[in-house]
Amino acid sequence: QVQLVESGGGLVQAGGSLRLSCAASGRTFVDYFMAWFRQAPGKDREFVAAINWSGGSTIYADSVKGRFTISRDNAKNTAYLQMNSLKPEDTAVYSCAAEARNVLTRRLPPRVDPNRYDYWGQGTQVTVSI
């Protein structure tokens, strides 16, 4: 089992920045690829960004590319999402997720499909005002 706890959400004006953190506990952190998803009211859950076990491979949704950066600190068992140039349409509950990988599958790139992720945090609210 892996427990994920997000923090860092809040209210920010358009154009501002926030950094979300996802603290993991319970298993070896490097065995997991990490991702961020978001869900706005009345909308489906949306992929935001994902990162492989070492941090050497990342992918982003087109809507956040160039504005958001996903990273991880394996020594701290924590993943991050740095969000810059925030827009009102970024308003959502942001959740981190972990996908277990073994020695063979960790060679593959991160995934965007939420059904591939094994563990989820409770989410943190991000609200961007005009």
Give a verbal description of the structure.
The protein has 130 residues and is mainly beta. The protein is built from no helices and 11 strands. Strands 2, 4, 5, 6, 9, 10 and 11 form a 7-stranded mixed beta sheet that branches. Strands 1-3-8-7 form a 4-stranded antiparallel beta sheet, with no helix packed on it. A hairpin with a 6-residue loop joins strand 4 and strand 5.
Summarize the structure.
With 130 residues, this protein is mainly beta.
What topology emerges from the helices and strands here?
Elements: E1 3-7, E2 10-13, E3 18-25, E4 32-39, E5 46-51, E6 58-60, E7 68-73, E8 78-83, E9 92-100, E10 119-120, E11 124-129
Given as residue ranges, the uncertain stretches (5+ residues, pLDDT < 50) are: none
Order of helices and strands: EEEEEEEEEEE
Give the count of helical stretches: 0
Distance between the termini: 40 Å
Q: Mean pLDDT across all residues, rounded?
A: 97
How many strands appear in the DSSP assignment?
Answer: 11
